[in-house]
Amino acid sequence: MSAGSTRAVRVGVLGAGVVGSQVVRLLIEQADELTARVGATLELAAVAVRRPERHADIPAALLTTDAAAVVADPEIDVVVEVIGGIEPTKDLLLTALNRGAGVVTANKALLAEHGPQLYQAADAAGADLYYEAAVAGAIPLIRPLRESLAGDRIQRIMGIVNGTTNFILSAMVESGMGYQEALAEATRLGYAEADPTADVDGFDAAAKAAILASIGFHTRVGASDVYREGIAAVSAADIAAAREIGCTVKLLAICERVPGPDGSPGGDAVSARVHPVMMPTSHPLATVDGAYNAVYVEAEAAGRLMFYGPGAGGAPTASAVLGDLVAVARNRVAGGRGPRESSYAALPILPMGDVLAKYHISLDVDDKAGVLAAVATAFADAGVSISTVRQEGRGDDARLVVVTHSAPDAALASTVRRLADLDSVRAVTSVMRVTGDMR
Amino acid sequence: MSAGSTRAVRVGVLGAGVVGSQVVRLLIEQADELTARVGATLELAAVAVRRPERHADIPAALLTTDAAAVVADPEIDVVVEVIGGIEPTKDLLLTALNRGAGVVTANKALLAEHGPQLYQAADAAGADLYYEAAVAGAIPLIRPLRESLAGDRIQRIMGIVNGTTNFILSAMVESGMGYQEALAEATRLGYAEADPTADVDGFDAAAKAAILASIGFHTRVGASDVYREGIAAVSAADIAAAREIGCTVKLLAICERVPGPDGSPGGDAVSARVHPVMMPTSHPLATVDGAYNAVYVEAEAAGRLMFYGPGAGGAPTASAVLGDLVAVARNRVAGGRGPRESSYAALPILPMGDVLAKYHISLDVDDKAGVLAAVATAFADAGVSISTVRQEGRGDDARLVVVTHSAPDAALASTVRRLADLDSVRAVTSVMRVTGDMR
User: Fold this and answer.
1) B303 in contact with A at a CB cutoff of 8 Å?
2) CA distance A361 to A340
């Protein structure tokens, strides 16, 4: 296992589940190619698992149940972490980083909650911390954002970064089925976990939004800084209402650099949020269906870019992990290291209430004169300008459909509450933010 | 211009045309941000131009007409080349690399023809050679291919990498106009140059194909290794014929790793080619219209990825150049360097005649019994299997439309020649390769 005069780079893998087993398989199968690309032998030295008897496909000599020993082993140069979770994973990775080992992780939750602490440990020891697989599976995204666009000013990142919710929403759009039915279908087909909370309530997407905003805007955004609404409240009526205005419904992670009141970059703030939106079917993200992911980036000089591919799955995620592993190993062979955390901008977080948004609102109303005037007054009182209003149906089916101009989210939310209290409004049947340029 | 204890990274720019002027503008405007990202002052030290009097927007003290002095100046750490052309550009960059300066270039023709020589000079001196802007403008592509996917096996790269030809073909599809008319429109709007040869004859796309194939397959592919057909022969009849089978027409750069007869990776060959294709409108590349670029990548573990964005233009290309510049400057500050050329695979080039292709062929034929039999026999004699055949029209308008199964390109081409010689075939009106899975 020697590559001439260059010492082998020894790798310890933590976890051999869906992703880890693919990482191990590819490390073994492609050993010769990886060695040629690194410039030194990439040697798989240990695989830490909970139950070794379940991993007959992995050479027994590599298996261990002692993850703590793997991260502490001075002979291990790079630790690949694919077990997930916060504890004890965080302490395991800090142990590895503190002694100067490189770390490759796919753990978005850990990075979104404790990224700064991990980065600090990496910096202090001069170690690499790579995590391409943490966002959007196999899609190269972290590297393009933090390296390719390092000479540009990113203005906005909008992504479909959760395959489970995209599958559910796609199914609702295609079949007209309701949320519960689509969720059951996703569970049956293996696209949703038994407990789908992390996906459908937007926690997974929020962690990714925190990572994307941090990298894209050179600042620190944690999971708790991300405004979050899931898809459980999205109804078949919402989907139908979106279709009527040439839109589809997607759960987006949106990260924006918002100019301050005086327009100077020093006054900028950052908004990171996850919520369902109605978006025009002409938008490149609108056609991203099923379990695929895509991220749309707007930068000052580069213009509009999109990255598309499989957002999850063992082999695709393993591809991202191995790309990072080759980079970290190359850096060790060359005696250098990759880009560090870049958080110099230190931008404040814009509260959700201050974010400018457009709303689509459907109301069941009494079919009588004066209803439109009452509704319009409620908007005007809140300082919210109406873009379009459509009256539909008669009698018991009378409806008003309103799309607003941009206004602070807090003003829009309070308007919706006031509408619900109007005597002539029988029910607010659909409320959703609208994104993209409407035709 | 000092960044504390760290010495500034001094940059010399060669050329201040469409791209260069944007590079210079952004370097000056974003100096503080770039410095924060590099970890040292990024100092614009010189801009070499032919006619300084035309560049009133650039500080006069930076302008020089002596490019040779800039590349030889030991005080210049990184040379940014955006003048294009082969000579004297090659010698200028070799001078810079030989003395250990980093080089960032957008020069696809130079890289496709003399890449190995430049890489060798970079390696010998331990210098960085970056060229993200050479392919697909602002779209991060080189870095994802050579770094993010370094742990995967890329199987195929298919790209719309020339905005001029994509604009012309999009115009033909949308309006039904002919090639000459669409070319005139593109020229009028500034999407085609006065001499459009490099674009419409596929030279530009071929240079990019050579670069993509070299990086993607860890081998050396030069511009002359790329099979090349332009779009000048694409007719309104071809576009109409494509539409009839649910396709659109695109000029694609296609790079494939083709398994050898024994199936072992050691027997693989590489095919790089540029030619128009009929592709299903359901394919993600089919909807990439106008001057946009997109590249579709299939990798063994990652699956199908797509990268989309502006393929040309001053600011987008400058964004890619500056991303590279930040990377090279960071590497200098950290004392390391980026990935070198990786050409260990040394794959042979598969001749175009051996590439497996499907053809779409339209024939004007005599409206009499036996024509189909004669045509089918011509295919059978060449060992080419027919997928679908459609008879259309009567009398003088009688036509046969044939789509073949996969066969060696040489067999298909010779079949077309033999069809043209058949007594019952009055004219071969459309011949084009078909790509993607047909519905």
Assistant:
1) yes
2) 44
Among A152, A158, A190, A185, which residue's Cα sits nearest to residue A169?
A185
Distance (Å, whole) CA B165 – CA B201: 9
Please name the residue of chain B whose CA is at the shortest distance from the CA of residue A149: B323
The CATH number of B142-311 is 3.30.360.10
What are the structure tokens assigned to A262, written together? Answer: 């005086």
Joined together, the tokens standing for residue A288 give 């991203």
- Position A265 scores a pLDDT of 66
Low-confidence ranges of chain A (pLDDT < 50): 1-5, 438-439
Residues in chain A, overall count: 439
Write down the CATH number for the domain with range A9-137+315-334. 3.40.50.720
> Per-residue pLDDT tens for B178-205?
999 999 999 999 999 999 999 999 999 9
Specify the CATH superfamily of domain A148-310.
Dihydrodipicolinate Reductase; domain 2 (3.30.360.10)
Q: Tell me the ipTM for this assembly.
A: 0.91
The amino acid that residue A382 corresponds to is: A
**Given pLDDT bands bounded at 50, 70 and 90, which one contains residue B369?**
confident
Span of B123-137, B250-264, B294-308 with lowest mean pLDDT: B250-264
Nearest to A48 by CA among A73, A28, A29: A73
Question: Which one of B306, B325, B337 has the shortest CB-CB distance to A309?
Answer: B306
Q: What is the rounded distance in angstroms from the CA atom of residue B6 to the CA atom of residue B8?
A: 6
Per the document, the length of chain B is 439
Angle at A46 between CA A42 and CA A52, to 5 degrees: 140
Q: How far apart are CA A222 and CA A207, in angstroms?
A: 8
Please report which residue ranges of B52-106 form alpha helices under DSSP H: 67-72, 89-98
Contact residues, chain A, for B34 at CB < 8 Å: 151
Give the CA angle between residues A385, A273, A161 to the nearest 5°: 125
DSSP letter at A75 equals T
Give the residue from B138, B181, B187, B141 showing the smallest Cα distance to B164: B187
Q: What three-state secondary structure class fits B155?
A: strand
As a whole number of angstroms, the distance between CA B435 and CA B159 comes to: 12
* Residue A403 Cα, gap to closest chain B Cα (Å): 29
Cβ contacts of residue B417 below 8 Å, gap of 6+? Answer: none
> What are the structure tokens assigned to B353, written together?
């005649």
pLDDT of residue A438: 44
What angle separates helix B108-125 from helix B89-98, to the nearest 10 degrees? 20
DSSP string across A304-333 = EEEEEEE---HHHHHHHHHHHHHHHHHHHH
Domain boundaries, chain A: 9-137+315-334, 148-310, 352-434
Cα–Cα distance for residue pair A212/A205, rounded to 1 Å: 10
Task: Judge whether B176 is annotated as a binding position.
Answer: no
Q: Give B41-81 pLDDT, tens digit per residue.
A: 999 999 999 999 999 999 999 999 999 999 999 999 999 99
Phi, psi of B199 (to 5 degrees): -80, -60
* Minimum CA–CA partner of B25 in chain A: A301
C-alpha A285/C-alpha A329 separation (Å) is 35
Topology classification of domain A352-434: Alpha-Beta Plaits (3.30.70)
Q: How far is B404 from chain A (nearest CA, A)?
A: 30
